[in-house]
């Protein structure tokens, strides 16, 4: 497989974001958004997917929602870009991740068609200072821009922090496996010959 690295710079009147990835990394992350829980979630994505991930995000308008949304768009887009035509990948994967009393499951198909089904089951209006709405929007924007089919479900749990973290980790583990090199796979893993 050729090098699967990519970089995106997204600059708008609202935000200034730079994201780079190495899909064949070791999970090394450097994340700076100014929002602690968001940094924590993005770091978990890199660590457990084994993707080297650098994220620098700055707000130009001081509106947290815009920063969260644009960061998710950039991360999803840069992973999509690094996957290229997806030749030689495993393509499909599934992961179930517990975090204490919570359990989350992710099923992923790295086909080049955006579809997602997201069930987070959070109850509180804020989790670690982030609004429930913005956390959901982060996941939705990330999944839409990943250009893949993802079903991400929190099955059960009591602690909203645990639910969200289990969801991110299950997505990361499923992504790690689906994006991995399948030594038996010759070319694009599709009967169509294209994704």
What can you see in these coordinates?
The chain has four helices and ten strands. The longest helix has 20 residues, at 64-83. It has a single domain (5-178), classed as Ribosomal Protein S5, domain 2, CATH 3.30.230.40. Helices cover 34% and strands 31% of the residues. The chain has helices at residues 36-49, 64-83, 132-145, 160-178, and strands at residues 5-11, 15-22, 29-32, 52-59, 92-99, 102-109, 115-119, 126-127, 130-131, 149-156. Helix 1 runs parallel beside helix 4 (160-178) and helix 2 (64-83) packs parallel to helix 3. The strands form three sheets. A four-stranded mixed β-sheet has the order 1-2-4-3, with helices on one face. The radius of gyration is 16 Å and the shape is globular. It is of the alpha+beta class and 195 residues long. The mean pLDDT is 95.
Give a topology summary.
Blueprint: E1 5-11, E2 15-22, E3 29-32, H1 36-49, E4 52-59, H2 64-83, E5 92-99, E6 102-109, E7 115-119, E8 126-127, E9 130-131, H3 132-145, E10 149-156, H4 160-178
Parallel strand pairs: 3-4, 7-10
Antiparallel strand pairs: 1-2, 2-4, 5-6, 6-10, 8-9
